[in-house]
Structures are given as structure tokens and as C-alpha cells.
Amino acid sequence: MKIICLVKFTPDIENFIYDYEKNVLVRENTRMVINPDDACALALALKYKSKHPETVVEVVTMAPLSILPHVQDLIRRDVDSAAVISDKLYVGSDTYVTSKILAKYLMNQTFDLILTGTHAIDGDTSHVPSQIGERLDIDQLSNIIRVDEQLLSLTSATVDVDAEHSISTYEIELPAILSLQKESKYKLPYVKYVDIEKDVSDRIQIIDNAMLGFDQSEVGIDGSLTKVSRTYVKKMSKNDRVIVKNDEAGIETVYAFLKEKGFV
Amino acid sequence: MEKCLIFVDSEYAKNAIELLEVARQIFDLAPYETYALCIHDITESANGAFDHIIYVSDESVKCHDAKAIAIIMEELHVIHNFGAILIPATQIGRMLAPRLAIRLHVGLVADVTAIEHIDGALQMVRPAFSGKIMACISNLGKKPIMMSVRQNVFLYNEDLNKATSHETFYPKSDLTTNIKWIKTVEKPKSKDIRDSEVLVSGGGGVKKGFHRLTELAEALGGEVSASRHIVDSGIASRSIQVGQSGKTVSPKLYIALGIYGSLQHVEGLKNVKHIISVNINKDAPICSLSDIVVEGDAIEFIEKLVDKIKSEADESK
Ligand SMILES: Cc1cc2nc3c(=O)[nH]c(=O)nc-3n(C[C@H](O)[C@H](O)[C@H](O)COP(=O)(O)OP(=O)(O)OC[C@H]3O[C@@H](n4cnc5c(N)ncnc54)[C@H](O)[C@@H]3O)c2cc1C
Ligand SMILES: Nc1ncnc2c1ncn2[C@@H]1O[C@H](COP(=O)(O)O)[C@@H](O)[C@H]1O
Asked: How far is B128 from chain A (nearest CA, A)?
């Protein structure tokens, strides 16, 4: 089985520092990390490969070339090959364009299954997997928390999908796109000690626009149909608040408030 | 007159009504009509709220099949030329909206939480970077304006007694699906914190005595909720988490006990009428949003307030 994993590298948002004085995010020196959902999806592929050695796992990412060390790290975890789609023309692409670029690459590949994350923690739209599904005319399911490895075959997969109040099981014909969420808890394997310095550059292919052949007007900011016109850190609005101590008078104030508003 | 199509996710009928408020804000003063798309069953609450209900009864269309529903919506767009298409950001909605946007070749804004008009241009506001920043997005392409809308954020207070027209729609395309539903297992039911008018919520400051929040919640007839900090430490289940990665809640009263009030947490508080916060640090961000700030230990506060409520109740007997 050939599995393609779509991986996005994102800033390590959990460790962003927030400056409450200036109301800004301190983004300097933020590390890039593999998007948490994508790490689970890739981990599933590698787990399956470890039990079915004939499986081939390819990572595909669209990113600046500065993430190459991260891609090498994934290869050392037993990924067979990686395609890094990178071109200055692609900077600023919205999801409409991002999915167009990724789909153009994928269209010329053979695969039985595409695994992705459900959402990326930075742009956070959850659009890309379904948009690729539409462009490749195949099915796609988000919010997957389990793939039944026993039932995974070249023709179908059985998956558990997390919805708010319930978990539903579906059988989906392959090829299809399965989008995992990090609650699936699949864990990436460690790099074996002997592989830490291993040269893996021959397994990484860099794909630029000369290979994909888009017109400049179709991609990047020019091709995008949405535009981020402004970002801001949410202002905390101030109220005419009352500050009391945790003593009798304070409790009295709280109680009177609850009574006035009809809560007691 | 502009037309606005709203997808009704029958599992979250209430959210479809909220989207009427989004339509109202998009078209502002311009005249417009609203169309609800219902698959398989006509959602009762859509009657009277929408101008038109379009109903698809075709058995081969499955509610879980985003691909098929996107095709139906494209067929409808060809007929009606909608000015806007709004989809609730539910599990199916989030798979459906991107497919439809590709079919119609239009831009899509995800998970919108506010609508603004700036210099005559429509701006859609949405959280990104896990709720740490808000982004204003504009749509550059042609009609329709498309977005998915975050659940539980907008409130619709307009006419719910319209004379709604009904139409059954027969899709032309072949809509057989390759996704077979096998089973659905309900998650153990904890009361949904989004339905509660009073939430007693705990954060890092009440890690030790979190179980005691129930006493206050019971005294006030509310439910217990938690910040991410508590959920990540395994003390409470994700189903009661308030915030960007948890739920958006709109209680009348929110009592924040030992909660710092990170942006991602506050993102989950929408249309909350009153906040009382108890914190040893009166400058924690949550306190600046509060009607009353109680400076001190939160567990002690629970004990004192529960005693007070009980003794007042006894007295009035
Ligand atoms: C603040 C902000 C707001 C934005 N809002 C919008 C918006 O409303 N609409 C819009 O169209 N665009 C928007 N964008 C642009 C959008 O984030 C980018 O197009 C982004 O590259 C892809 O989207 P995502 O992060 O939302 O990915 P998601 O769709 O959330 O990612 C889901 C999965 O798709 C795969 N994937 C995503 N990107 C890549 C990639 N580059 N390489 C490989 N796999 C990938 C991964 O498996 C990932 O887990 C916004 C960007 C910013 C910074
Ligand atoms: N015993 C306590 N009672 C009330 N608030 C507390 C208590 N201990 C810590 N806090 C506050 O609880 C919040 C918890 O922050 P954190 O641990 O970062 O989630 C902070 O705002 C603290 O000031």
C-alpha cells in the first residue's frame, strides 16, 4: 500500500509568549513544529508500515525550504520519501490556492490512501483536506480518532469519527483522504540512535513551480480569493467592576448581586 | 433582491437560526431573502424563521456525505445565484463548505465569529493561531460570499413568524456515496455546559479542590465547567472545557474560580451576561472582564458563598 501523508509545519503556538502590556504576541524565535494532528496521521502510517513492511510512506509538505531539517528528521523515523513543495510564488496562498498546488502535485502520484490532519494550529481553517478531496474527486473524512488497522485494505478503511456528542463508525472506499485529529493519540516513533546523523537527502525531492507550471496569477497572493486584511490580538474590554475581599462584606456583595439578578 | 442560502445541519438546528443573524449583518439594509437547505427532515424551528425552505428527500443522499451535499448546493446555486452561502461550522459543515467553495471557485472564510463593514467592504472576523489572534478576512472573488460560522456566537432576535414557503428539490446528479455508515455510539451524557444558564468554572487555581465546584454549581442550579489547564491535567473531561479548543458558552452567569483568563479561554465566552471572578491575583486578565472580582482563595469562597445561600434560604422558610 502507498500512503501519502500531508504534513504542515507550524509555529509552536503553545509556546508563544503573550505580552499583556503591549497586547501583542511575541513571535520572535518561535520554533517550527510538525502540526500536532499531522504527527498523529503520520504516526498511524508508520505504525501500519511497521506491521506491513511492503507499505510505502511518502510525506508531502508545502513549506519554505527552511523546514528541510524537520523533513529529514521525519525520514529518519522510517518515512520512505518526501516531497517539499516550495516556491517564492506560493507565498501568501489562501486555502483555495494551497489546495490547488497540493492537488496538482498529488494528481500525478499513485497512492491508495492520503492521510492528513483535521486542522492546522496556525491558519486553523480545516479547509485543505476537503478541498483536495474535491479537486481529486475522492471522499474525505475529518475528525478521525481511530483507523481500524485490521480492516485497512487496498480497497477500504473503517474509521471512527469524533462528533460532539457521539462517535460514528464509517466504512470508506479507497482511495480517499482520511484526516486525523490529535486525540487519536498515535505517536511518532523515535529516531533510532544509529540513524541520528544519517544522510537522507537523496530521499527528499524539492518541487518548485518550474515543475508544477502555474501561471503567477494563479497562485500566491495573486491567485488567492481571500485576503487577511488585518490581524489583532483580542482586546480585553474593561467593565465597571467591583473588587472585594473574600470576607463577610465581600460575600454579602456577591450575594446581593446574585439576588438582584435573580440567580438565588 | 439578494438571496442567502443557509445549510441546516439537522443535529444542530439552533445554529441554523443563528446564521440568520449573520445574513442580516451581511446585507445590512439591503433587501434579501433567506433559503434553508434541509436534508431528509424539515427542521421544525426553520419554519417561520426562513423565507424559504428547500427540502431534499432523496434516500440516496446521506447526511454524512459532504461530497453529495456540495453537489446539491451547487445545483441550487446555478438556479438561484445566491449572494451569500452560510454553513455552520459543525463537523459536517466544515467538510462541506470547503468542497462547495472549490466547486463554485470562491474564497471561503472559516469559523467566522463577527461581521464588520469597513469602508463599505465586508470583513469577516475569525480566530486563528489557536485563538491567540483574530483576523479580519475579506473576500476577493466573485459571488457568493461564503463562510462557515462558529456555533453559538451569533444571536438572532428578529421575526420568527414569517410565512415560509416549502419546496422539494430533486437533484439531477447521481449522488451515490462511497462512505457507508456503520454505527453511532453516543458519548456518555454529561450535561452540556452550553445549555446551562449558570456555569461555575475552575482553572489552575482550583486544581486541588476542583471537585468542590459542584457544591456551588448545585446551590446555583448550574453546571461545572473548566479551563484547558484543568482538562489537560486530567482532572476534568474535555466535554466541559470552555475556550477556543473547547466549547463556546453563553451563560447568564459565569463564575471563574482560579482562572487566569488567557485569550483562548476568553474566546469561549460569548454573550455572557455576568462574570464573577475569584482569584488571588486581582490583576489576572479574567478580572478585567468581571462584574465582581473577589480577591482571595476560590475554595474558601465556595464554602462561604454556599453557606450564605443556604442560610438565606433557611431564613426565608
Ligand atoms: C490569520 C490567518 C487567517 C486565515 N484565514 C483564512 C481563511 O479564512 N480562508 C482561507 O482560505 N485561508 C485563510 N488563511 C490562509 C491559510 O491558513 C493558508 O492557506 C494555509 O497555508 C493552509 O491552511 P490551514 O493552516 O488553515 O490548514 P488546514 O486546512 O487547517 O490544515 C489541515 C490539514 O491539511 C494539511 N495541510 C495544510 N496545509 C498544508 C501544507 N502547506 N502542506 C502540506 N499539508 C498541508 C495538513 O495535513 C493539515 O493538518 C489564513 C491565514 C492566516 C495566517
Ligand atoms: N487558591 C487560589 N484561589 C483563587 N485563584 C488562584 C488560587 N491559586 C492560584 N490562583 C489563580 O489561578 C490562576 C491559575 O493560573 P494557571 O495556573 O496559570 O492556570 C492564576 O490567575 C492564579 O492567580
From this structure: 6
